[in-house]
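Here's what a typical entry looks like (Glyoxalase):
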Amino acid sequence: MTLRKAPYIFVGQVDLNVQNLERSLTFYQNVIGFQVLEQTNNKAVLTADGKTPLLVIEQPDDVIPKQPRTTGLFHFALLLPKRADLANVLKHLITIQYPIGASDHIVSEALYLNDPDGNGIEIYTDRPASTWTWQDGKVSMATEQLNAENLLQEAGDAEFKVLPAGTLMGHIHLHVSELEKTAEYYHEGLGFDIVNDTYPQALFVSTGGYHHHIGLNTWNGIGASTPPVNSVGLISFKLIFPNEEARKIVLEQLEKIGAFVQEENGIIISKDPSGNQIQLSV
């Protein structure tokens, strides 16, 4: 499935606060396989292809640890081009003995881990879209045990060093404080389709018939508070629109439902009802 094609809206970049930039850079380069695109004393832009920013990590001067039971990042998810790529990552993580989880979601196979600050990461590959099961606009997903032995059969002999150049930011999964206003914001405001609502206290939304571009859950508790801006965790994520007209339509929809929207230094910012910040980009 082509994610980077009109008229789809997709996640392009995720920005995170971390406590120690050098420690995080070591992790994201050596464990995940990112390359550094740009770097300053307190910020680094990370890429898989040497030109496209996927993840930005920043160390605020007054940074505080990740706050429990708050809204924000559950995980960001890196989509690899091929199943063999996921096999190579799994082999690498086993070799360096990094703690991971793993799941088979029917539509995809996924590995899960945390960075040194507890920011959640998913690394996954999709099964062919032709194998996904849809009924009444909803896609079937589940959380089952990953067949790691079968996956590892596709791993190559070479040592894993960097993410494949075709790696994308496949989706983002967020903690939110409630689901009713959240569904209104993402569906009626941003224009995403609700494609799965079978998981307890969770919704999954997408455009273009993808299994999900954004996951939303209240697993940190209904009424969870928004963390301080200097807390470890999500700063913002970027949604990429196919053109200015598509963004204009969404801005009108957001205004209609009374959502937060403002422009800062030429960047259009919105916030969902739980305070998760989104850059609306073309």
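The chain has one domain: 10-281.

More examples are in the samples folder.
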